[in-house]
Design goal:
The complex is a heterodimer. Chain A is of the alpha/beta class. Chain A has 13 helices and 10 strands. In chain A, the strands form 2 sheets. In chain A, strands 4, 5, 6, 7, 8, 9 and 10 form a 7-stranded mixed sheet that branches. Chain A has a 3-stranded parallel sheet with strand order 2-1-3. The radius of gyration of chain B is 24 Å and the shape is globular. Classes of the chains: A alpha/beta, B mainly alpha.
């Protein structure tokens, strides 16, 4: 990653008569861009990469909607890719003609959020489920029932995400309801489930899962697969990521080029670059999340390649969050407010 | 008006211009944007449509039921009530503790006084979030408070007093955070207190309690009231204590605003809640002005 001071120095050198270096501006999630990947790209192409960061899809969307230009690549999650396409914020890029497109796992080609693969290149994907302390809990994490209707062991030692995005969909999976339902009757069922769960909840928080699981303050917590993996490796070997039979809630981040990008050519080069298995493995090794490129396993750390957190069993469905309609979104908000009122 | 006076007035205006500019840019304009957004229509994907709408304010009191009728919905009023109650309780505790501390400091020799006032400001050197997390560790399972109880066998080896993630924890957090804002103004007004008046009271056979009530408290009232405002107002909008120490199990106004902007993507409603919060703050300031006038009169001989 280019150090700002170096960039300033380079700018001075340019003033002194040297040729101006080409630049690629990436706007990505915080702590989500592998420095090794950027260094390799810079060395191969001579393009200077400048990374700026955000922490929610909403921030990214607000920034693009406010007319911010200057970013050549941004990294929205699947449902936001769809929203951004609808809102006309993205450029069509001829991804299928790129040489490395052949490396994309057929499973992730033409995804529902970009049916003709006109805008997006796979970056990282993962899932949300719950994790538990295998040594303190007698269950096996086989069903979402264990999470929503916890046993005596778990009562009072359960952590739930602070925002409804994933938890609401976990409830939908458990109750067999569709995502983004506009039917108030469905919302009532979800609310009843949440309200029955609440007395057992210690805290609603989207952070500190590994700390609390490691100390035993909670013995079950909603979790991200990659973050749970970090917890198992660094905090406590008994933190197990559950694969309930009803399914897990997936997310999928992609590289896209916003309208108004100043260096589309460099963005295309970068997109092609990350569809190379060896390159994207650098990113996966850094962030501990899966990618959608075939053959990258060869270059991934042994611990990641075999990690159960990154390799869901074939019989557990992965359902991706969708962009809900205004009506459905309001129901979700109402349920959550009612739960916490 | 003479020419000199006109020039004087102009000069004064020019000299004040930077102040007006700062207030305008950093306070008035953002506030106006907030009020404007609260009267717009929500875009579910974030942001607003620039169409006039009072939906956000209607939503605070009513919701559409499943047949589309407007029905009264007390959910947000409950949240408002909870926030006011928590802030008021924290303010009351701060007055009690803050007054004692300020009184103790004032009774010290001047040199030690300065040192003590300096010590009061030390917590401000550390980020608020870090201090809130420290309380998570202190109050949490097996934390500083649990440990001695465990060591004495009053709790099982895995037992906990269950202090964290309760309203008590929120109150501890609020009191801890805002106490210095109470101590300093009370100290300021006690420092100016003429202790000959206290001596006079005891010469006139007033006991300590009577002296405190009839002499010291009326003279310290402006400090107490200023402190109460300084504590009550930010405590009302605080979301760090409710989220971190309360476990975010119940919303307060501050966490409701945060939820609307960060998660629910309902900017107009978030802005409307902020406006309602603002109205509450202004009402308490108006109360402050009335009270200080009374206190000022009471303080006159």
């Amino acid at each position: 990653m280019t150090v700002r001071i170096l960039a300033a120095g380079a700018a001075l050198a340019a003033l002194a008569g040297a040729a101006t270096a080409e630049e690629l501006h990436i706007y990505n999630w915080t702590d989500y861009t592998a420095p090794e990947l950027i260094e390799k790209f810079e060395a191969e192409t001579g393009i200077d990469v400048i990374v700026d960061t955000y922490d929610t899809n909403e921030t990214l969307l607000a920034k693009l909607k406010s007319g911010a230009t200057g970013y050549d690549i941004v990294v929205p999650s699947q449902h936001f890719v769809k929203i951004m396409i609808q809102e006309g914020l993205l450029q069509k890029i001829d991804i299928k003609s790129m040489p490395n497109y052949a490396n994309v796992d057929p499973r992730w080609k033409n995804p529902p959020w970009d049916p003709n693969q006109e805008y997006s290149v796979p970056w990282q994907w993962g899932s949300a489920s719950f994790s538990y302390r295998a040594d303190l809990y007698s269950g096996k994490g086989e069903s979402l029932k264990e999470f929503f209707e916890p046993s005596e062991e778990v009562s009072g030692r359960l952590q739930v995400f602070a925002s409804p995005d994933e938890v609401y969909n976990m409830a939908n999976l458990y109750l067999g309801l569709p995502f983004c339902s506009e039917d108030p009757e469905d919302a009532k069922k979800v609310l009843a489930l949440f309200q029955a769960q609440k007395p057992h909840v210690l805290t609603y928080s989207s952070e500190g899962m590994n700390d609390r699981l490691a100390t035993g303050e909670v013995i079950m917590a909603t979790h991200w697969n990659g973050y749970s993996l970090v917890g198992r490796r660094e905090a406590n070997p008994n933190i197990i990521y559950a694969y309930p039979k009803e399914g897990i809630v997936g997310w999928f981040d992609s590289l896209v080029v916003p309208v108004g990008a100043s260096n589309v050519e460099a963005a295309r080069k970068f997109m092609n670059f990350v569809m190379d298995p060896e390159n994207i493995a650098l990113q996966s090794n850094f962030a501990a999340y899966s990618n959608g490129i075939m053959g990258s396993e060869k270059y991934m750390d042994e611990a990641l390649r075999t990690a159960p957190e990154l390799n869901p069993p074939a019989d557990v469905p992965v359902k991706f969050g969708e962009a809900c309609s205004a009506e459905a979104q309001k129901l979700i908000e109402r349920v959550w407010t009612q739960l916490l009122q | 008006m003479s020419e000199v006076a006109v020039i004087d007035a102009r000069r004064r205006w020019l000299a004040l211009a930077p102040a007006y500019l700062v207030i305008g840019v950093f306070m008035v304009i953002p506030l106006m944007i907030m009020v404007a957004i609260s009267f717009m229509e929500q875009n579910v994907y974030g942001g607003v449509f620039r169409v006039f709408s009072t939906d956000a304010y209607t939503q605070f009191l009513f919701q559409r039921d499943f047949d589309g009728n407007l029905v009264f919905n007390p959910a947000y009023l409950v949240i408002l009530g909870r926030s006011v109650a928590l802030a008021a309780a924290a303010t009351a505790i701060c007055v009690a503790v803050g007054f004692s501390v300020a009184w103790f400091i004032v009774r010290q020799p001047p040199r030690r006084r300065n040192l003590l006032v300096f010590l009061i400001t030390i917590p401000f050197w550390t980020n608020l979030l870090v201090r809130a997390y420290a309380w998570v560790i202190i109050l949490g399972r097996g934390g500083v408070i649990d440990s001695p109880f465990r060591a004495l066998g009053l709790l099982g080896p895995d037992g906990t007093l269950g202090l964290l993630y309760t309203n008590t924890a929120i109150l501890i957090g609020l009191t801890y955070t805002y106490l210095p804002l109470m101590v300093l103004p009370i100290y300021a007004s006690l420092e100016k207190l003429d202790f000959r008046l206290v001596e006079a009271a005891s010469d006139l056979y007033a006991d300590k309690w009577w002296t405190m009530r009839q002499v010291v408290l009326p003279l310290a009232a402006p400090g107490v009231i200023a402190g109460a405002i300084l504590v009550f107002v930010p405590a009302l909008g605080d979301f760090i204590s409710p989220n971190l120490l309360g476990g975010a199990k119940r919303l307060t106004l501050g966490s409701l605003v945060q939820f609307q902007f960060a998660t629910a993507r309902n900017w107009p409603f978030g802005a409307a809640v902020a406006v309602i919060l603002l109205v509450f703050v202004m009402a308490s300031l108006a109360l402050y002005v009335r009270l200080t006038r009374k206190a000022g009169k009471a303080g006159q001989p």
